[in-house]
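Backbone description:
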Amino acid sequence: MIASQAAVKYGLIAGIGTVAYFLLFYFIKEELLFNPFVYWASLGFYLALMWRALQVEEQAPGERLGFRKALQAAFLVFVIANLIYYLFYYLLFGLIDPELIDLQRQVMRESLEQSGNLLSEEQREQMLESLEGDDLNPTAGKVFFTFVRSLIGGFAAALGMAALKGRG
């Protein structure tokens, strides 16, 4: 696979934009980093720039876009952006501000308390116990495997976009 310039360009923009987005919330109020809306809204950068890369690829002279080329370009945008995000995550949580892990535990406990009636007592206790271990501490291995698992969702999104753009 030859990396398209558009995919690399928009992958870098998506990754750097996502880091800037999270840094904005980090500097406003650290607790916002753990807000589900803030987290899931960040995927908008990825999706918009994956789509933009496909539009640019579609307009490039030469062979037509096609499904395979569209899938490769969209997925490459996701991979690059997510690689930048997880590098940022590891640096921020693991090296720059390790106290964020304690804040994350606190936010998760509060969330469990607020939604306690949605879980059985046993489930709630298991979740509270899981917060006490080292599971939240970001090691290079844990972050890498989380990155790899995230590629499944990115591939699914790229597959959908490729199906829309690459047909014909």
Observations:
- The mean pLDDT is 90.
- The two ends are 21 Å apart (CA to CA).
